[in-house]
Specification:
The protein has nine helices and two strands, in the order ααααααααββα. The chain is mainly alpha-helical. Helix 3 crosses helix 6 and helix 4 runs antiparallel to helix 6. About 2% of the residues have low confidence.
């Protein structure tokens, strides 16, 4: 079980990074935006943490809710693990095949960033609006179901949220070291390969996320 927990935490964290670096997610620009408002690096780092709290406000209840639902069916533990393994394998395969799907809604708040409260609200709305990241979020929800524990369900959700903001903390810290945001975006290189005569284009973050889901799926079996 300890190996499963470690593997799941790594998977959730990498999934969060993949969600942040998704082409449709503009959150990666946040530190530069905050820097233009608050000027001081220390304050930008603090506001990035506040943004993380906003994200966690969205994802933590999702993880806890999924874990709580799983506890109702604890007697089907083996079946849940089998279904979780199959789901992870399918999710990993679809990600590596370049398949993406979105939730049927989006939120585009027009917020004027002035203080910690507005940054927190932006984090909440950003968490709700990560519709293009639905596959990786679905994977994290599945992770929360597996351990039959509210505690670990919440930890996986927090690991996903932390994955989304870890690069933002790095950008905030190195904000005065050149165009770090652009460099981070450019580091998410794309790879191409052919399968069944079809060309698949994948970003590095998607590749890592897909491989993580596949490996965890095999591990669950």
């Amino acid at each position: 079980m300890q190996s499963l927990i470690i593997a799941s935490l790594i998977t959730a964290f990498v999934a969060g990074i993949a969600a942040l670096l998704a082409p449709c997610c503009v959150t990666v620009l946040l530190p530069s935006y905050l820097g233009s408002i608050f000027k001081e690096k220390r304050k930008v780092i603090f506001m990035t943490f506040v943004f993380f709290l906003g994200l966690a406000t969205v994802f933590l209840p999702i993880g806890l809710g999924a874990a709580g639902l799983a506890r109702l069916f604890a007697k089907y533990h083996n079946l849940i693990f089998t279904a979780g393994g199959i789901f992870m394998l399918l999710l990993g395969a679809s990600t590596l095949l370049g398949k993406h799907f979105s939730m049927p809604f989006s939120v585009s708040p027009k917020l004027k960033i002035q203080n910690a409260g507005s940054v927190f609200t932006l984090g909440v709305f950003s968490g709700i609006a990560t519709t293009c990241c639905a596959p990786v979020l679905a994977g994290v929800i599945a992770l929360s179901v597996l351990p039959n524990s509210l505690f670990w369900g919440g930890v996986y959700a927090l690991a996903y949220s932390l994955g989304m903001v870890a690069p933002l903390f790095l950008i905030a810290y190195l904000l005065d070291k050149g165009n770090i945001t652009q460099k981070l975006v450019e580091s998410n290189k794309r790879f191409s390969y052919y399968i069944g005569g079809r060309k698949v284009n994948l970003a590095l973050a998607d590749l890592l996320s897909g491989l993580n889901f596949l490996l965890l799926g095999f591990f669950l079996f």
